[in-house]
């Protein structure tokens, strides 16, 4: 296993390359600390961006693998009230006047540490806010800990600390797309409890019992939907690889699924709350001053080549 820091003429495309003869992982500190490549035994698992200007354009429109904090998904009109104060987040989905995908997806993270072992590696990144983010006047530090194993595992841990003197609301999420040449033949498995019906702005307006079978073949199905999970895991199997995602968060985990029109990938997005949670309070959490919360996503994969 080897870790290299790769420079680029555009600083946004600088990245950390963790690799072995059978493995390639690329992490981009200046694109919100996102991981944009996972190739195993020549099989592309993550559908990330290209390391060029077209990749940056792609990232701005798709948020591929972006880290979602202090909220995943959307806030309606970008407005929420907390402790009697109204807060206005930046509107970055102007077509429907929403704030989308949090506030750190385009931030510059610092490399805290990289550690290399015989068959595994660890990369720790940090972003510190002094409370000047539009609509989120709360100081915090967010650390991302990537653990990469030669044996077929990648994990991402969120470690968020409230460095201010008042509590704040928050949620966490991850927005990866997984590559497949044949989405229709892929199978999906997760045990869902609730389904969140949304309006035409993708804001939940109703909670229903989920009628989705625990295991199904994708076929022609299309998704842009959120579910609560009975068990904190899901499985996605393609003709090239099998994938399992596990989530470690005692307060509960939600899953957003999105199928792009091109159907060459699928977004499987774990979240600690649903869209607009700062207003609808579904999965809503608060962090007290000086306290730290953690959330871990474990990705296990097995290629078939």
What's a concise summary of this model?
This protein is mainly beta and 305 residues long. It has 2 helices and 28 strands.
Describe, in plain words, how this protein is organized in 3D.
With 305 residues, the protein is mainly beta. The protein has a single domain, classed as Distorted Sandwich (Beta-galactosidase, Chain A, domain 5). The protein contains 2 helices and 28 strands. The chain has a 9-stranded antiparallel sheet, with no helix packed on it. It has a 6-stranded antiparallel sheet with strand order 17-26-25-22-19-20, with no helix packed on it. The mean pLDDT is 96.
What's the gyration radius in Å? 19 Å
What's the helix-strand series? EEEEEHEEEEEEEEEEEEEEEEEEEEEHEE
Task: Describe the global form.
Answer: globular
Biggest sheet character: 9 strands, antiparallel
- Strands, count: 28
CATH topology annotation: Beta-galactosidase, Chain A, domain 5
**Percent of sequence in beta strands:** over 45%
Q: Which structural category fits the helices and strands?
A: mainly beta
Q: What's the CATH architecture name?
A: Distorted Sandwich
Total count of domains: 1
| Widest β-sheet, arrangement of strands | 11-12-13-14-28-24-23-18-21
> What low-confidence regions span 5 or more consecutive residues with pLDDT below 50?
none
- First-residue to last-residue Cα separation: 21 Å
What is the CATH class designation?
Mainly Beta
Give the % helix.
under 10%
Mean pLDDT over the full residue set = 96
Number of helices: 2
